[in-house]
Specification:
The protein is of the alpha/beta class and 327 residues long. The protein has a single domain, classed as Alpha/Beta hydrolase fold, catalytic domain (Rossmann fold, 3-Layer(aba) Sandwich). It has 9 helices and 12 strands. The strands form 3 sheets. The chain has an 8-stranded mixed β-sheet with strand order 1-4-6-5-7-8-11-12, sandwiched between helices. A two-stranded antiparallel ribbon has the order 2-3. A hairpin with a 2-residue loop joins strand 2 and strand 3. The longest helix has 14 residues.
Length: 327
């Protein structure tokens, strides 16, 4: 298999190499040849600064990024580079069976057709538990739900849930146009019997990137958008499906690490109201729980032109709570 290209960075400071989460404690990128380590069938990428050394990496704080539905793991590239430039060890492991590139995933996305919330949660729990230093867990969409579940189970030292799929019985509104279960009759690219749900470029702009220009939305779609498993959407309770028992978080755990919830106030997929409802569920917990609402931002807030404002807010929040690259 050919090596993936290095992720781009405006500073030219980030380098990218895949790493098996099973070997994170002892992995040495200098020993990597043409074999790309995999975890449960998915690659795990590590981003590091150009001044990185294996010796200096000892005891640095890892950050595990978990992507959501309709995005590839590459969607975290800018965030991972930003965090790596601040000294964190940034990892963006894909879902089980997720192909290495967006193009491959679009052509062979059946490898993720059976991915549900149980499998995803266990996958990332295994990754997050494999570090010597407990990681910060940052998730978007369903990744935000998983981040909450893990921090509630005392996995990781802090968590950030961005536009998170709701937990504990809070439901998502059904967006117009039948987005969750599109059919040819509704103008979507996916038949109702297909195990994968794809978005057209027009749907992506309307529901996902509704606050950016058509031109920017098209660029984001081309670079990051991939199909999502219908099984996973059903596990989240979409289209009236019975929600998975794993769509929960322990909101009463007083011993967990800090949690930051983030919403976009123009988000049509996970509305601000849903994230505020989740925040209220943590009201009786003695553990740190914060909410940040970004005005005029949609579900694309981690990938669109304003991503750095969100990423830098998260970095600042981590610093306020003593969570730095060098513990």
């Amino acid at each position: 298999m050919a090596a993936p290209p290095l992720a781009r960075t405006a500073l030219g400071a980030a380098r990218l190499c895949p790493v098996s989460a099973m070997n994170i404690k002892s992995f040495d990128c200098r020993a990597l040849t043409c074999a790309w380590p995999m975890l449960n069938g998915s690659p795990a990428y590590r981003y590091r600064s150009s001044s990185y050394s294996e010796e200096a990496a000892v005891n640095r704080t890892p950050v595990v990024f978990i992507h959501g539905a309709w995005l590839h793991a590459l969607s975290w590239e800018s965030w991972a580079e930003r965090f790596a430039s601040r000294g964190f060890l940034a990892f963006t492991p894909g879902w089980p069976g997720e192909p290495l590139t967006v193009g491959e995933m679009r052509q062979s996305s059946e490898t993720i057709a059976d991915v549900g919330l149980d499998l995803l949660t266990d996958h990332y729990a295994k990754i997050a538990s494999s570090f010597d230093v407990a990681p910060v867990i940052i998730g978007h969409s369903v990744g935000g739900l998983i981040a909450q579940h893990l921090i509630g189970a005392n996995i990781g030292q802090a968590a950030v849930a961005i536009a998170p799929a709701p937990v504990n019985g809070i439901t998502l509104p059904v967006p117009p146009g039948g987005l969750w279960l599109p059919s040819h009759a509704e103008g979507g690219p996916t038949a109702a019997s297909d195990p994968l749900v794809s978005l057209s470029a027009a749907q992506f702009q309307h529901f996902f990137a509704n606050t950016v220009s058509e031109e920017e939305s098209a660029r984001l779609f081309d670079r990051y958008a991939v199909p999502a498993p219908r099984r996973l959407l059903a596990d989240l309770g979409c289209a009236g499906s019975a929600r998975s028992a794993r769509a929960v978080a322990d909101v009463g755990n007083a011993d967990r690490g800090p949690l930051l919830l983030i919403s976009g106030q123009e988000d049509l997929l996970v509305p601000d109201a849903a994230t505020r409802a989740v925040y209220k569920q943590y009201g009786d917990s003695l553990a740190v729980t914060d909410l940040k609402q970004f005005a005029d931002r949609a579900h694309s807030l981690i990938i669109d032109n304003g991503w750095r404002f969100v990423a830098d807010y998260v970095l600042g929040w981590l610093g306020e709570h003593g969570l730095r690259a060098h513990p």
